[in-house]
UniProtKB/TrEMBL annotation:
Cofactor: Fe cation
Origin superkingdom: Eukaryota
Assembly notes: Homooctamer.
Catalytic activity annotation: [ADP-thiazole synthase]-L-cysteine + glycine + NAD(+) = [ADP-thiazole synthase]-dehydroalanine + ADP-5-ethyl-4-methylthiazole-2-carboxylate + nicotinamide + 3 H2O + 2 H(+)
Function in brief: Involved in biosynthesis of the thiamine precursor thiazole. Catalyzes the conversion of NAD and glycine to adenosine diphosphate 5-(2-hydroxyethyl)-4-methylthiazole-2-carboxylic acid (ADT), an adenylated thiazole intermediate. The reaction includes an iron-dependent sulfide transfer from a conserved cysteine residue of the protein to a thiazole intermediate. The enzyme can only undergo a single turnover, which suggests it is a suicide enzyme. May have additional roles in adaptation to various stress conditions and in DNA damage tolerance.
Gene Ontology MF annotations: cysteine-dependent adenosine diphosphate thiazole synthase activity; iron ion binding
Positions of post-translational 2,3-didehydroalanine (Cys) modification: C207
Cofactor note: Binds 1 Fe cation per subunit.
Name of the protein described by the UniProt record: Thiamine thiazole synthase
E.C. designation(s): 2.4.2.60
Lineage per the UniProt record: Eukaryota, Fungi, Dikarya, Basidiomycota, Agaricomycotina
Length: 321
């Protein structure tokens, strides 16, 4: 939104003189607050600095506290959110940090297919909808949620309500932290982050260095398209940890969905891939506008993360044994 332009003085003079009657909209006592819809709605008084400090304190305390997380989930689409929900509810002790490049989380799950609103979910993934309390129409072998946004808004609200989950949207992962671990293996040990608008503008400014978040487990759910789709899979190739991308194959619903769910795994030490990013890594088929595999893959990624964490010795967010 462009900043307000300087207004011509004549226009100001045209304005009606400010009412001489005490503008009762301004109160200086909290108990003068009034919810009134007859022209006398009165808010509690506030100073602009109070608003700034309320945001700054909370956001930057969160950044400080989550500089070392237990699990980082990259991408808040249907797979990433399903993973976050299962992980954070099954293990409320874990600090789960979600990083989403878009201002609006939700990925490709706000609509069904070709901008149509209904969302198709093949059984048995309908069980997850029941767990979330999302109504649907049962068509026998699949169910239909009347609007994809009903799924996405519901899971988003449930995930954000969890005390151990932090979502940083408009924040891009622009690299991976990769280092040699206690066994001499190359391990993904965190992510390199920046404001998305900065990450997309490195060619327009000189060096705008990033920030970092370290964690023993990174779950990448960056999808297969969009400006940063399949980000981690592509980074594994350029970092020499993956020979080449498998490249997503043509649409085949019956092959694609089980392949994505069953293929969800730790693809390199410390990094789990889930959702459609996996189709680019493995070269599995795409399934088109059916979302059950995203939910089930996210759930499987959560189980994989718990398996890794419970079978590792972790000190200060690092796997040491
Ligand atoms: O919804 P997506 O794109 O990814 P998934 O895997 O959660 O769900 C995929 C699903 O929507 C489909 O593609 C359906 C089933 N169609 C299949 C088909 O055959 O066409 O969400 C990925 C999210 C997005 O919100 C991105 O903005 C975000 O990940 N993202 C990132 N966030 C932070 N840093 C990054 N580098 C990054 N890259 C992507």
């Amino acid at each position: 939104m462009a900043p307000p332009v300087a207004t011509d003085t004549a226009i100001i003079e045209d304005r009606p003189a400010y009412s001489t009657k005490k503008n009762t909209a301004f109160v200086d006592k909290l108990d003068d607050v009034l919810e009134d819809y007859e022209g006398n709605y009165r808010f509690a008084p506030i100073e602009e600095a109070q608003v700034s400090r309320a945001m700054i304190k909370r956001y930057f305390n969160t950044m400080y506290e989550r500089a070392v997380s237990d699990v980082v989930i990259v991408g808040a689409g249907s797979a990433g959110l399903s993973c976050a929900y299962r992980l954070a509810t099954e293990r409320p002790d874990l600090k789960v940090t979600i990083l989403e490049a878009n201002v609006a989380p939700g990925g490709g799950a706000w609509l069904g297919g070709q901008l149509m609103t209904p969302m198709v979910v093949r059984k048995p993934a309908d069980r997850f909808l029941r767990e979330l309390g999302i109504p649907y129409e049962d068509e026998g072998n699949f169910v239909v949620v009347k609007h994809a946004a009903l799924f996405t808004s519901t899971i988003l609200s449930r995930v954000l309500a969890l005390p151990n989950v932090v979502l940083m949207n408009a924040t891009a992962v622009e690299d991976l932290i990769i280092r040699t671990d206690f066994q001499g293996r190359q391990r993904v040990a965190g992510v390199v982050t920046n404001w998305t608008l900065v990450a997309l503008n490195h060619d327009t400014q000189s060096c705008m260095d990033p920030n970092t978040i370290t964690a023993p487990v990174i779950i990448s759910a960056t999808g297969h398209d969009g400006p940063m789709g399949a980000f981690s899979a592509k980074r594994l190739v350029s970092a020499g940890l993956l020979k080449e991308l498998g490249n997503m194959r043509g649409l085949d619903m019956n092959r694609a969905e089980p392949a994505i769910v069953n293929g969800t795994r730790e693809v390199t030490p410390g990094l789990i891939l889930t959702g459609m990013e996996l189709s680019e890594h493995d070269g599995s088929n795409r399934m088109g506008p059916t979302f059950g595999a995203m939910m089930a893959s996210g759930i499987k990624a959560a189980k994989e993360a718990i398996r890794i964490l419970d079978s590792s010795q972790i000190v200060d967010g690092k796997v040491v044994g």
